[in-house]
Specification:
Helix content: 25-40%
Oligomer: single chain
Structural class: mainly alpha
Low-confidence stretches: none
Number of helices: 2
Mean pLDDT: 83
Strand content: under 5%
Number of strands: 0
Length: 84
C-alpha cells in the first residue's frame, strides 16, 4: 500500500466508523449468532497477498458485525455512556 492508498483507506475507515455510530438505531443491540460462527467464514490460512481495503471493509460488515454487541446503543436498556 503506497501513501495515497493509505490515505484513501484511512479516510474510508473514518467514514466507516461514522456510518457505524450513526446506524446504531438500525442494529440489534446483542448478537444473534452462535459461538464459533466466525471460524467457518475465515480462510484456513492467511492470504499470500494483501487484500483491497474495500474487501476488508465488506468482511467487517458481513462477518464481524453480526457477532458484536453494540454497547453504545443509545436506548436506556444498555446503561453505558455514549461516546458520540
Amino acid at each position: 500500500m503506497d501513501a495515497e492508498q493509505f490515505r484513501r483507506a484511512g479516510h474510508s475507515a473514518v467514514d466507516e466508523i461514522v456510518d457505524y455510530m450513526t446506524s446504531l438505531e438500525s442494529r440489534r443491540v446483542v448478537s444473534n449468532v452462535s459461538p464459533g460462527y466466525l471460524r467457518p467464514l475465515l480462510p484456513s490460512k492467511p492470504p499470500d497477498e494483501g487484500e483491497d481495503w474495500e474487501d476488508i471493509q465488506k468482511d467487517i460488515e458481513t462477518k464481524i458485525m453480526p457477532g458484536l454487541t453494540h454497547w453504545y446503543f443509545h436506548y436506556p436498556c444498555t446503561d453505558f455512556p455514549r461516546v458520540v
